[in-house]
Amino acid sequence: MGEMRGSAVILRMTEYGDRDLIVVMLTESSGRVDVIARGAKGSKRFSGHLGLFYVVDFLAQSRSTGALATLKEVRVIRGFIGLSQHLERLATASVLAESFVKSSVSEETDPDAFHLAVSSLARLDTCDAEQCLAVMCHSVVHLLRLRGVLADLWHCHRCGVVLDGNHRVAFSVPDLVPFCPTCVSRTQPQSLISGTAMRWLQTWYDHWDLSVAGRSIQDGVVHRDELWFLYDQLLLPALMSLINGRIQSAAFLQTAMGRGSS
Ligand SMILES: [Zn+2]
Predict the structure, then answer these.
(1) Residue 165: which residues within 8 A CB-CB, separation 6 or more?
(2) Which 3 state secondary structure label does DSSP give 120?
(3) Could you tell me the distance, in angstroms and rounded to a whole number, from the CA of residue 183 to the centre of ligand 1?
(4) Which of 46, 78, 110 is the last residue of a domain?
(5) Is residue 208 part of a domain?
(6) Fewest Cβ atoms nearer than 10 Å: which of 19, 56, 227, 242?
(7) In which domain, by residue range, is 7 found?
(8) Domain ends where: 60, 78, 96?
């Protein structure tokens, strides 16, 4: 790749040896980019400019195609310090970060995913603990949409009847194709959701503005349970199918939300 520069959001950092860090970024112009930050640990180099969930301007260089690029310069544009102040924010941000990293292709232009990741983290940075799950679900719906998983949420896949959000809907799992109540019994395996939950999905799908997520739910035990069901039974299986693997942070989120293991 030679030289690469631009805007990126840092979604993963792991230690490498005594002094270096491997940094995984989602960039605006080139999709996922993995770089090594040499001498980043325990020195003033990059000090204050490298951090999880930071939005940065960067310059990286690599000697040959396929080799890990070296981070040469990095300047923080925006850090989301609110994410580490609440367990729920940090846990939902972690699941999102992992989902973006694992569903992104290296060095392939992907500006929509970059902007979705940044706006999701910005929204999580200031939202109430109760709203974190809704914001994360909203963001996952758009990520699945970007990756071609969610196509049509308004018609039964079998008979074509309009799904108006007044009746229960069944989704095949993990490909998330919707079926009306009449066609439900003929589809396997499936997850049944309420008309209310279906309206949330349709609203999230229709609106890129992530503040809609907070307004679309009312707090309360029933709603929180329903929201968790949407995440746990529909969106998480779809994510795992998309990346063909596990979302490791899901266990962290389960603990943060006080949910037992299923
Ligand atoms: Zn039908």
Answers:
(1) 195, 196, 198, 199, 202
(2) helix
(3) 4
(4) 78
(5) yes
(6) 19
(7) 3-78
(8) 78
CA of 157 relative to ligand 1 center, distance in Å: 7
**Overall domain count for the chain:** 2
Q: Give distance in angstroms: CA of 205 to centre of ligand 1.
A: 21
ipTM of the prediction: 0.99
Ligand 1 centroid from CA 63, angstroms: 56
- Domain-embedded: residue 149: yes
Distance 235 CA to ligand 1 centre (A): 22
If asked whether residues 41 and 149 sit together in one domain, one would say no
Condensed to tens digits (0 to 9), the pLDDT of residues 218-231 reads 544 557 888 899 99
Strand partners, 162: 155
CA dihedral sign of residues 117, 149, 135, 21: negative
Q: Predicted confidence band at 253 (pLDDT cuts at 50, 70, 90)?
A: very high
Q: Rounded to whole angstroms, how far apart are CA atoms 117 and 126?
A: 15
- Helices 132-146/221-229 angle, 10° precision: 30
Q: In this predicted model, what pLDDT tens digit does every residue of 107-122 receive, in sequence order? A: 788 899 999 999 999 9
